[in-house]
Amino acid sequence: MQINGKMVIGQHAVLGMAGTVRAIDPSTGAEIEPAFGLASEAEVQQACALAESAFDIYRETTLEQRAVFLETIANGIMDLGPVLIDRAAQETGLPRARLEGERGRTMNQLRLFAKVVRDGRYLSATLDSALPDRAPPRPDLRLRKIALGPVAVFGASNFPLAFSVAGGDTASALAAGCPVVVKAHGAHLGTSELVAKVIQKAVADCALPEGVFSMLIGEGRHIGQSLVSNAAIKAVGFTGSRQGGVALMRTAAQRHEPIPVYAEMSSINPVFLLPGALANNSAALAQAFVDSLTMGAGQFCTNPGLVLALQGKPFQDFVDAAAHALHAKTAATMLTPGIHHAYTSGVVRLSEIDGVEMLAQGQHATSGCAAQASLALCDAKTFLNTPALQEEIFGPSSLLIMCSDIEQMQCIAEQIEGQLTVTVHATAADHALAKSLMPILERKAGRILFNGFPTGVEVSHAMVHGGPFPATSDSRSTSVGASAIDRFVRPVCYQEVPADLLPACLSDNNPLGLARVVDGDLLMPR
Amino acid sequence: MQINGKMVIGQHAVLGMAGTVRAIDPSTGAEIEPAFGLASEAEVQQACALAESAFDIYRETTLEQRAVFLETIANGIMDLGPVLIDRAAQETGLPRARLEGERGRTMNQLRLFAKVVRDGRYLSATLDSALPDRAPPRPDLRLRKIALGPVAVFGASNFPLAFSVAGGDTASALAAGCPVVVKAHGAHLGTSELVAKVIQKAVADCALPEGVFSMLIGEGRHIGQSLVSNAAIKAVGFTGSRQGGVALMRTAAQRHEPIPVYAEMSSINPVFLLPGALANNSAALAQAFVDSLTMGAGQFCTNPGLVLALQGKPFQDFVDAAAHALHAKTAATMLTPGIHHAYTSGVVRLSEIDGVEMLAQGQHATSGCAAQASLALCDAKTFLNTPALQEEIFGPSSLLIMCSDIEQMQCIAEQIEGQLTVTVHATAADHALAKSLMPILERKAGRILFNGFPTGVEVSHAMVHGGPFPATSDSRSTSVGASAIDRFVRPVCYQEVPADLLPACLSDNNPLGLARVVDGDLLMPR
């Protein structure tokens, strides 16, 4: 498949005329051909109008039709073969093995949502029988969830496949019955075009209305703001910086009709090393921590950016082992020059804060966008008095906090902002302390994990990739895992609606074979 | 039980010192004793701090404990006996029979949420087994929903019991495990105090932390804004005007940590009279419509404020019959002088719009706050060209729209703003037309009902009292019915959490006997 710098607007390939931009190879800084045309306002409107006009038809496709559509996209991505991996590797600097793994994850996501759609539990089908003899009579009432409307999706820089054009937000929105307009991330334009064409073809192959999917290319924030402001758009999925997410939240709140924004933004993913666990195996813990920290040049939203432990010999052992492990880590190419610049200046800023000591660094960078890993140290008091230490430094940088006692550790737990994850390392001897931390951690994070590291987010039914602000804009949802579909639906009640006008999921004879709540009881299909 | 003008702050009765206010009898305009003390900023902070400190304990009470707590409140309200009905009737001008019915509804709501809590389905318990042999291994993952945090509730004027201090928002938030701070509605201060004391006593009787419930009294918007701005508050439930709701949405969005606002605001509840239904029985339809319009002085958020039909003889018959029925309606006392003033000036404004004809009015008002019902008419073109005609006039006023053809009716359906309800009157002959309207109506409303009128909102599992903006601030939820609990929870994932630290609902042996999703399949308890 050829990359030709065009956007996907419904079934058309459109060359944007508002300027051009080229992808950049972050390992060399060189531009990559071809030039991509930038969208004008007219193309934003066109994509949104198409999405709006496709909505009523698309949202009422059968569960099976939507499941097959998602599977067709998954197969189409695989069918692209090495051309996709080649281009993604060139644009992102990520190793091929990682990208092949990410492609598998992307297909798994699409297939998980195909299963979620076929199961139909997300419809929340609920029936209350009429009670004509009650005073007053109760009417026949039936509830299902319907799709919210067209969704704007902003791809993430750090997952060019799994959280981009056909990533989690797109998959869950399409699964729910929402048309999607993607704004491609500038860090992987060619990758985006390849995947967008796969979805475009799947739309045609599945005989769906063309407006079900479009992908726009734009520089800076203008096109994004314009997309979120468009009246046809009814929800937003975003993965990126806190600043970018908050800007979209503001735009969405200021619309005539405010709409939900699901922004996954910023998290430093605290790791609590409880005394028993630390004493037990500080060296192995340190190695596993450094591996997690430096994986993928630290470019994960679940990167362990904060580690807390009690002072003492085991802590010192951990520090020494972590410093040693870090020294051995080669500098890996970051995704873009901008991300690299933000990382290096973030580390410099951190090192200049009073009370922060730079403990160790990884191997020196050998190319322009390579990131030298970094480990810093401060005491709990410094952390508690310095709000800036809670700011995410996107990349392989982490801060160790030395606490003088348990109370300080609890106090920090109370003071940290909302997080995607919080990790606890504990042996059986630590469980009393862990128990006292749990209520605090539950209030702070979307995922609490024990005796592991937070990088690696399973795509499954019980996953939550979410959490209180500023980790996300909406703690009531997740952007990874089966429940992500719930973000894009809303309930509608049908009162005394004639049988031939009822949606199939609410018909008396349960033709879809759904688990339904009937008169308050959950009934399994026969 | 004595009414003494005090607020409920935890287990204390506190006389606000920031001024005084008295309740008003709307049928006479006379003030009612005693004086109520107004909250200062300090009391807002005190109530919020208590709620925050109660949160971790309250949210981890057992399902049975919370169910019993809700039932204790229900019983306590009933035990107040006639003193509650007397005071509510005096403060609101509502008939005793209506208030007794509303008291029943209030208790039913509390009992419904007791059942919802006992069922535990709202926890969304989900388990994914560890797959240690997979590459990479899958960890053990378990999801449950936990309470969001303390909730601020703003009572509605028009349901002094069912949507006020112990109303739907309070019941669903308490059910979810959220402490509640209510701002009492100034239109029924004594009623509020009586009910607040019942909840306060239930908190003590159930041995819950005192911060689980507080009720503040404040004038104007200051106390409300201060409550919503308080960092301890994590969600807001509101029923009232669009202006009031939008102000709270803005405050909540501007917080350091933005929080969800569930505001039920404004709806004109369009009624589509399709040709077959209209021809079939225009006189009976007109009588039922006028009964719905004037019930409770039209002070329902589901009041039918807009009626659409095709021009012709059946429409004329409907108009004549409706006018006749309206003439017979006596003017009923409205809830407050302010509501009465807004109603009468709204009707005057409506009558002055070009193209709007006043068709009929009810009996003249005999007392200060009594509302003369009103019916106006315009053609579809006027409606389509006059956005002001979509503004809610709270009270017994409705606007008939005469459409010249089906296309005009569909065009209006497309142009109306978000609604709580949309009603269709249809015979079998109308089903083709109804089918063409359904997709539009689904996009516009939270509830679609056939061959009835929208007033009367059943409290059950399948009810949706919600809808797109401006009907509510968040179409993804309902404020009436079992699913209202979903507004006040968020998911948390537990990864490899040791068995003794897991919440009971996620334990291997399913001690709570919940329906749970295990490895993607919904399993019923044995």
Describe the structure.
The structure is a homodimer of 526-residue chains. Chain A is of the alpha/beta class and 526 residues long. Chain A is 38% helix and 21% strand. Chain A has 14 helices and 23 strands. Chain A has a seven-stranded mixed beta sheet, sandwiched between helices. A seven-stranded mixed beta sheet of chain A has the order 15-17-18-13-12-19-20, sandwiched between helices. In chain A, strand 3 (20-25) and strand 4 form a beta hairpin. In chain A, helix 3 (82-92) runs antiparallel to helix 6 (189-205) and helix 9 runs parallel beside helix 10. Chain A is globular, with a radius of gyration of 25 Å. The two termini of chain A are 47 Å apart. The relative contact order of chain A is 0.13. At the A-B interface, strand 5, strand 6, helix 8, helix 14 and strand 20 of A face strand 5, strand 6, helix 8, helix 14 and strand 20 of B.
Secondary-structure class of chain A: alpha/beta
Instruction: Sum up the overall morphology of chain A in one term.
Output: globular
Helix percent of chain A reads: 25-40%
Strands of chain A, count? 23
Number of helices of chain A: 14
Oligomeric composition of the shown chains = homodimer
Q: Terminal Cα separation of chain A, in Å?
A: 47 Å
What value does the Rg of chain A take, in angstroms? Answer: 25 Å
Q: Which residues of chain A form runs of ≥5 with pLDDT under 50? A: none
Largest sheet of chain A: 7 strands, mixed
If interface size is counted as residues with C-beta under 8 Å from the partner's C-beta, which chains form the largest one?
A: A-B, 81 and 81 residues
Q: What proportion strand of chain A?
A: 15-25%
Average pLDDT score of chain A: 97
